[in-house]
Amino acid sequence: MNKALLDTDIYSEILKAVNPTVTQNATTYRRSQGILTFSTVTVMEVIRGFQKSQASRRLQAFHAAIALEEILHFDQPAAELAGCIAGELERIGQPIGTSDPNDCRHRPASRP
Fold first, then answer.
1. C-alpha distances out from residue 18 to 83, 97, 108, Å
2. Which GO molecular function entries does the Swiss-Prot or TrEMBL record give (predicted)?
């Protein structure tokens, strides 16, 4: 199984553990890779959601959980490439979510 960068929507579904297909796929992936991989953008978005809903217990659990995962940092080169990707997609009439271009910059190390 190839290494994958999870976006916020998928990671949120994993945290909720409501969809059995997502849960099973996450379990299979974790067995294969040992960890989940997502970006600091996902960390920000998940914390924002917990803060907004005042879910302090879930926020504490999230902080404990991410200590065991691989988090890719969103630095200046990532920001520049994300801006180029988002701008180009908007120019051709195919915009994507606000944070999705940020994740496009990251490429897990095991991928070419």
1. 34, 23, 27
2. endonuclease activity; hydrolase activity
- Tokens 């969809």 locate to 19
Residue in 68, 72, 62, 60 with CA at minimum distance from that of residue 30: 68
**How high is the mean pLDDT in each 10-residue block of the chain (112 residues)?**
89 93 95 94 92 94 94 86 85 75 50 38
Can you tell me the distance from the alpha carbon of 61 to that of 58, in angstroms, rounded to the nearest whole number? 5
The β-bridge relationship of strands 70-72 and 37-39 is: parallel
Look up the CATH number of domain 8-104: 3.40.50.1010
What global pTM score does this model have? 0.71
Residue pair 40/72 in contact by the 8 Å Cβ criterion = yes
